Amino acid sequence: MRGFIDGEYQDGPLRGCTFVAGERGMGKTTLVANLLSVCDGGVMFFDPLARHESLLPGRKLFFQPGPLQEYLRINRERRFKVLYQPRDGDIDEHFRALCLIARAFGRMIFAIDELDMFCGPRWGDRRMPPCFYDLVNYGRHAQVSMIATARYPMSVPRGFTSQCAQMYLFHETEPDHITYFRRYIGSADALSLSALEKYQYLHWNGDGPAQLCGGRR
Ligand SMILES: Nc1ncnc2c1ncn2[C@@H]1O[C@H](COP(=O)(O)OP(=O)(O)OP(=O)(O)O)[C@@H](O)[C@H]1O
Ligand SMILES: [Mg+2]
After folding, report:
1. Residue 73, C-beta contacts closer than 8 angstroms, at least 6 positions apart
2. pTM for this entry
3. Given ligand 1 and candidates 30, 155, 200, which is best to mutate, with the most ligand atoms within 8 Å of its CB?
4. 2-214 adopts what CATH topology?
5. What residues does each domain of the chain span?
6. Please, what is the average pLDDT of the chain?
7. Nearest atom within ligand 1 for CA of residue 25
8. Could you tell me where the beta strands, DSSP code E, fall in the chain?
9. What strand order describes the sheet that includes 2-5?
10. Is the CB of residue 117 below 6 angstroms from any atom belonging to ligand 1?
11. In this predicted model, what pLDDT tens digit does every residue of 125-139 receive, in sequence order?
């Protein structure tokens, strides 16, 4: 299913803002790649570590915003599959450029790996760059939906997580992280995060208890 539904852009399983969290190596980025693989429309994946081309095969690869803009001018509204890897220069600047591009071209899923790298107190009270804040709050008007991963949920501003209609949560043992998620998914589900096996995750969409999914393939 794809389209502007109930005021949000939906493509396959993704709609509005989605958060993927969990300890290192639990399968977060792989899950995002799997979710994006069933999308029918435009997808832009920001890969700050520049190491996920094998996970996202067949993507059009970009390293600079200029050529990406040229490409989207021709391919906007089409089924573009972009992988963006900032290989040199200031990584914050690359991220901000992609936020502006997502807002300007619209109608896409914007996936951000390691979102916590771009957030924090250096951005003041909102803890995120203004162009990302703009996407979180007004991106739906441009039909931009987002999915982001992070290892440290508390390093991602609540301004983002509070807008997430769904979360995919992998194994967590850190008590502060479990306490953090209690407020979103409830105590019982949050406490079960420490019992998840590697590659298992809870899928929470605000509608009843979270679903246990995934596992070793
Ligand atoms: N369901 C699965 N079954 C078996 N192996 C998996 C599964 N999901 C991911 N993997 C493998 O586990 C490794 C880690 O996966 P991935 O990079 O997605 O984890 P991550 O949580 O994003 O890690 P990081 O925190 O380092 O970003 C990869 O080699 C990936 O191929
Ligand atoms: Mg990852």
Report:
1. none
2. 0.98
3. 30
4. Rossmann fold (3.40.50)
5. 2-214
6. 96
7. 23
8. 2-5, 8-11, 14-15, 17-21, 43-46, 60-62, 81-84, 108-112, 144-150, 164-170, 200-204, 211-214
9. 2-5, 8-11, 14-15
10. no
11. 999 999 999 999 999
